[in-house]
Design a protein that fits this description.
With 224 residues, the protein is an alpha+beta fold. It has two domains: 114 residues, Ribosomal Protein L22, Chain A; 104 residues, Ribosomal Protein L22, Chain A (Alpha-Beta Complex), CATH 3.90.470. The chain is 29% helix and 28% strand. It is built from five helices and eight strands; from the N terminus they run αβαβββαααββββ. A hairpin with a 2-residue loop joins β7 and β8.
């Protein structure tokens, strides 16, 4: 069963992706290519678990870049700890406890991408006030440990990953408010301005269960 889950995971994820966005996966802890010399310093002093996650994420990202037509596939970590994608490309990396996933695209097609992967389980009750605004809790009838709250969390993670490369500013979970959720898609808005994006910016994303995991995706096109 586990041997089949990675291809199925990517196959189902690809149903979320628009044209020009490519996905790949790598299993955490599997035998992977060594990190590029520009990537390795990021986790040189990290615990082994983090090193394995990082290596799988970079392996998946390299595969996605090649699929998008890239020849430079090293992705060093910036001073802000964000992935530094090669010139002419954008992407996003995520992982759960077993698999790392990545998406990549040419910037002539897409300005920025955001991908998140979570286990498809309810969000713990004590985390809900940190993730969900009061308006969201009322809108989606969230009263305790909730799958809807986990879906909101994942959607916000994907949105943040797509927004951050364009703003360079950290965000709180309450800076993004979910307006609609379901039927494989979600709609959110910026509750506060994050230049160059104004307060009220509408963010549209996609979301679905992929091989038993919750995946969320956001992309900003060149007209965004």
């Amino acid at each position: 069963m586990e041997q089949l889950s990675a291809p199925l995971l990517v196959q189902e994820l690809e149903a979320l992706l628009p044209a020009g966005v490519y996905a790949a996966q790598a299993r955490i802890g599997s035998v992977l290519p060594p990190l590029h010399r520009s990537e390795a310093p990021a986790v040189a002093e990290a615990v082994p678990k983090r090193q394995r996650e990082f290596a799988a994420g970079r392996a998946a990202a390299g595969q996605a870049l090649r699929a998008a037509g890239g020849t430079v596939t090293a992705i060093p970590m910036g001073v802000d700890r964000a992935p530094q994608w090669p010139a002419g490309f954008c992407g996003s990396i995520t992982h759960d406890d077993r698999w790392a996933l990545a998406v990549a695209a040419r910037t002539e097609d897409w300005r920025s991408l955001g991908l998140d992967l979570e286990d498809a389980s309810p969000l713990a009750d004590d985390l809900i006030p940190l993730i969900c605004t009061e308006a969201e809790r009322a809108r989606f009838d969230i009263r305790g440990a909730s799958y809807s709250a986990k879906a909101i969390f994942s959607a916000k993670e994907a949105a943040y990953k797509a927004i951050y490369p364009l703003t360079g500013r950290m965000m709180s979970f309450h800076d993004i408010e979910l307006l609609a959720l379901g039927d494989g898609a979600f709609e959110a808005r910026l509750a506060v301005a994050h230049p160059p994006f104004a307060r009220g910016l509408v963010i549209e994303g996609r979301q679905r269960i992929c091989a038993g995991r919750l995946a969320s995706f956001v992309a900003f096109g060149q007209g965004s």
